[in-house]
C-alpha cells in the first residue's frame, strides 16, 4: 500500500481586503477554499488550473509560507499547523520549494555558493567551510552545472541554468517533499524538457515526492502520477493522470483538456469553449462554483455545493452530474 | 569553444572569489571614483595634519592692522576681518566640517535603516507607528527642528552631529521602507523563508544588501548639505562656537564682506565644493563597484 506523506484536509486560505478610512476588513479573497488531497510517498501530484485558481497559494500554504485560515496539514503524521516556530524550522528541511521565476528567485547580490550554502548555514551550522563548498560543488554537478560556477553571481547564468541552481538549492537538505511552483513556465520550450528530465532523474535517485503546480497540461501529464484540477479555490477533480486525460468527468476538466493543441498537421478535435470569465474569488458563485460557465448546469448546481467524493478507483470528482 | 570557456572560468576563479576583493578591483579601475577617493584622502590628510600644515595659528595669530588683505605671498588665501590667515583657518576648518558631514550621516543611516527596515518588513502596526512619526517629523521645517534639538540638548559639536543626523532620518527611513516593501515580495526572500531563515537573517542578508544603491547615493549627497547646515547652526551659535574655524561659519561671517573681500567666501566655498565633489564621485563609483551585476 502506498504510504501517505502529506495529507491536506479542508484547507482554506483567505486574504483580507481592507479599505475605508479605518482600514477595516471589507471582504475576503477566498484564494483556497476547502481543498483536500493526499500525496503519497514517491509520487508526483500535479495541480493544474487557470491563473488565479489558487494552485500557487495552496503550495505556499502547505509550506506555511502563507498561514492558512482553516484546515489541517499533516506531514508524516505531524500536524504542521500546530508546530512552534522552532519546530517548523526543523521541519523545513523536509519540505522545499522550486520557484517559478528563476530571475527573481536568486538573490542578485549573492554568489551561488552563498545562495545554496544558506541551507547549510541554517540547518548545519557546525559544518566547516571546506566541507560545505565540496557539498555545494557536488550539488552543482548533480544538477548538470560546472562545479566551478560556485563563485559566480546569478546574473551570469541563463534562465535554464538559474532554474538548475534553484533545484540544487531545493535538494540541498535532502528533503522528502518538493513543491514545484510552475518550475518551467518561465523557460524556453527547448529548455523546459531538460529541466523536467532533471527533476525526473532526481526523483528516481532520491525518492523525492513532488507537488507539481502548472498550467501547462502537457507538462503535467509528462511528469505526474496523479493530477488535481483546481477551479476558483477548489479541487474539482483528482485522479491518476491516465484516467484524467483519457476520461475526464468534470465539465471543467473536459473543457481544459480540449484546449490542449494536438501536435498533428490537420489534427482536429471538438473544442469545449467556456463562455464568460472566471468569477471573482471575492464573491464566488453559490452552489457549484463552476455553474456560471457549465454547459450542463442544472438547478441543483446553483443551490447546493457538490460533494467532492470518490466515484471509484480513487477518482474524486465534485459534480452533481455524478449523482445521476 | 567549450575549452576557451573553461579557461575563462579557470582564470576568473584564480583572480579572486572574495566579493570585497572583486569590488575593490572594480573600484580601482573606475577613474572618476579613484579621483573622488584621492580628494577624500587628501582632505583627510589635511584634517589630520592641519597643525603641521598651517603657516599660522587659526585663532591666536590675529593682526587687526592687516585685516581684509587679499591673497599675497605671506597669506596665500588672504586675511579675514581680524587679520587671521584664511589658509590656516580653512585647513583647520576641515576637521570639524568633515567630521560633521560624516558623523551626522552616520546618525541618519543608523536610525533610518533600522526604522525603515522594521516598517517595511513587518508592516502592520510597526509600519503604521513609524511612518506616522516620520510624517510628524516631516511637518517641521528640518532646520527649525535641528535648532530645537540643539537648544534642548545644549549647544556643542556633538549636539550638531546628532541634530543634523536626526532631522534626516525620516527621508532615509522612507527610502529604505520603499525598497524593503518591494524586495520582501521577491521570490528569493520566500526561498530563504522556506529554508527556515529567521527574520533578522532575511533582513540583513537578503533584503538590505539589495537596497544599497540609493542609500549610498543619498548618503554622499547628504554629506554636503550637512556641512552647509552645520555652518548655519554655528552662525546661530548652536554649533561649534566662534572663533573655532569651520568652513560653514567662515562663509557665513565672510558673507557680510563679500563685496570688499570676496576671498573670505571663495576659499572656504572651494573647500566645501571640493569635499562634495569628492564624496559624490566616490559614492557613485562605490555603488557601481558593489553591484555584482556591473561588468568588469
Automatic annotation (TrEMBL), chain A:
Residues 6-257 form the ABC transporter domain. This is Oligopeptide transport system ATP-binding protein. CDD domains: ABC_NikE_OppD_transporters (cd03257). InterPro entries: AAA+_ATPase, ABC_transp_ATP-bind, ABC_transporter-like_ATP-bd, ABC_transporter-like_CS, Oligopep_ABC_C, P-loop_NTPase. It comes from the Bacteria. The keyword Cytoplasm does not apply. It comes from Alkaliphilus peptidifermentans DSM 18978. GO terms for molecular function: ATP binding; ATP hydrolysis activity. One of its GO terms (biological process) is peptide transport.
UniProtKB/TrEMBL annotation, chain B:
Residues 94-283 form the ABC transmembrane type-1 domain. PROSITE patterns: ABC_TM1 (PS50928). It is a multi-pass membrane protein. Pfam families: BPD_transp_1, OppC_N. Keywords: Cell membrane, Membrane, Transmembrane, Transmembrane helix, Transport. GO terms for biological process: transmembrane transport. It is found in: Cell membrane. The chain crosses the membrane at residues 36-56, 102-122, 143-169, 215-236, 257-279. One of its GO terms (cellular component) is plasma membrane. InterPro entries: BP-dependent_transpt_permease, MetI-like, MetI-like_sf, OppC_N. The keyword Membrane applies. It comes from the Bacteria. PANTHER family: D,D-DIPEPTIDE TRANSPORT SYSTEM PERMEASE PROTEIN DDPC-RELATED, OLIGOPEPTIDE TRANSPORT SYSTEM PERMEASE PROTEIN APPC. Belongs to the binding-protein-dependent transport system permease family. This is Oligopeptide transport system permease protein.
Amino acid at each position: 500500500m502506498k504510504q501517505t506523506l502529506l495529507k491536506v484536509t479542508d484547507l482554506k486560505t483567505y486574504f483580507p481586503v481592507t479599505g475605508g478610512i479605518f482600514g477595516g476588513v471589507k471582504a475576503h479573497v477566498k484564494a483556497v477554499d476547502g481543498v483536500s488531497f493526499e500525496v503519497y510517498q514517491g509520487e508526483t501530484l500535479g495541480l493544474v488550473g487557470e491563473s488565479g485558481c489558487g494552485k500557487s497559494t495552496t503550495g505556499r500554504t502547505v509550506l506555511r509560507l502563507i498561514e492558512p485560515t482553516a484546515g489541517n496539514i499533516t506531514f508524516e503524521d505531524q500536524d504542521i499547523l500546530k508546530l512552534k516556530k522552532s519546530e517548523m524550522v526543523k521541519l523545513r528541511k523536509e519540505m522545499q520549494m522550486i520557484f517559478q521565476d528563476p530571475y527573481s528567485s536568486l538573490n542578485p547580490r549573492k554568489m551561488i555558493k552563498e545562495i545554496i550554502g544558506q541551507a547549510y548555514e541554517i540547518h548545519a551550522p557546525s559544518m566547516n567551510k571546506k566541507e560545505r563548498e565540496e557539498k555545494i560543488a557536488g550539488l552543482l554537478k548533480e544538477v548538470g552545472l560546472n562545479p566551478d560556477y560556485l563563485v559566480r553571481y546569478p546574473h551570469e547564468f541563463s534562465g535554464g541554468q538559474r532554474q538548475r541552481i534553484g533545484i540544487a538549492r531545493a535538494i540541498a537538505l535532502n528533503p522528502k517533499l518538493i513543491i514545484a511552483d510552475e518550475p518551467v513556465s518561465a523557460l524556453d520550450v527547448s529548455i523546459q524538457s531538460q529541466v523536467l528530465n532533471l527533476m525526473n532523474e532526481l526523483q528516481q535517485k532520491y525518492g523525492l515526492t513532488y507537488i507539481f503546480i502548472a498550467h501547462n497540461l502537457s507538462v503535467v501529464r509528462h511528469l505526474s502520477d496523479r493530477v488535481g484540477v483546481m477551479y476558483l479555490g477548489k479541487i474539482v477533480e483528482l485522479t491518476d493522470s491516465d484516467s484524467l486525460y483519457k476520461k475526464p468527468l468534470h465539465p471543467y476538466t473536459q473543457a481544459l483538456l480540449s484546449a490542449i493543441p494536438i501536435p498533428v498537421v490537420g489534427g482536429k478535435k471538438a473544442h469545449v469553449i467556456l463562455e464568460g470569465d472566471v468569477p471573482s474569488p471575492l464573491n464566488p458563485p453559490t452552489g457549484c462554483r463552476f455553474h456560471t460557465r457549465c454547459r450542463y448546469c442544472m438547478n441543483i448546481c446553483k443551490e447546493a455545493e457538490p460533494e467532492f467524493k470518490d466515484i471509484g478507483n480513487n477518482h474524486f470528482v465534485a459534480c452533481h452530474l455524478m449523482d445521476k | 569553444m567549450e575549452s576557451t570557456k573553461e579557461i575563462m572560468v579557470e582564470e576568473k576563479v584564480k583572480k579572486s572569489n572574495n566579493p570585497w576583493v572583486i569590488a575593490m578591483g572594480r573600484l580601482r579601475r573606475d577613474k572618476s571614483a579613484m579621483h573622488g577617493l584621492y580628494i577624500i584622502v587628501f582632505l583627510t590628510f589635511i584634517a589630520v595634519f592641519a597643525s603641521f600644515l598651517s603657516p599660522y595659528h587659526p585663532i591666536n595669530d590675529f593682526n587687526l592692522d592687516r585685516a581684509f588683505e587679499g591673497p599675497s605671498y605671506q597669506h596665500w588665501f588672504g586675511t579675514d576681518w581680524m587679520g587671521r590667515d584664511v589658509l590656516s583657518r580653512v585647513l583647520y576648518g576641515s576637521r570639524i566640517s568633515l567630521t560633521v558631514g560624516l558623523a551626522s550621516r552616520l546618525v541618519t543611516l543608523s536610525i533610518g535603516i533600522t526604522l525603515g527596515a522594521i516598517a517595511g518588513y513587518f508592516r502592520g502596526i510597526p509600519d503604521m507607528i513609524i511612518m506616522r512619526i516620520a510624517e510628524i517629523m516631516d511637518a517641521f521645517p528640518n532646520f527649525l527642528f535641528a535648532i530645537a534639538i540643539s537648544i534642548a540638548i545644549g549647544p556643542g559639536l556633538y549636539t550638531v552631529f546628532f541634530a543634523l543626523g536626526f532631522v534626516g532620518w525620516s527621508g532615509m527611513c522612507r527610502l529604505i521602507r520603499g525598497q524593503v516593501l518591494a524586495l520582501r515580495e521577491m521570490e528569493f526572500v520566500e526561498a530563504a523563508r522556506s529554508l527556515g531563515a529567521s527574520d533578522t537573517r532575511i533582513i540583513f542578508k537578503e533584503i538590505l544588501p539589495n537596497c544599497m544603491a540609493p542609500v549610498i547615493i543619498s548618503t554622499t549627497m547628504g554629506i554636503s548639505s550637512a556641512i552647509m547646515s552645520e555652518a548655519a547652526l554655528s552662525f546661530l551659535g548652536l554649533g561649534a562656537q566662534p572663533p573655532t574655524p569651520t568652513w560653514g561659519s567662515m562663509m557665513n561671517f565672510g558673507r557680510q564682506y563679500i563685496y570688499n573681500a570676496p576671498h573670505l567666501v571663495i576659499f572656504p566655498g572651494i573647500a566645501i565644493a571640493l569635499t562634495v565633489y569628492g564624496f559624490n564621485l566616490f559614492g557613485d563609483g562605490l555603488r557601481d563597484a558593489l553591484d555584482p551585476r556591473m561588468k568588469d
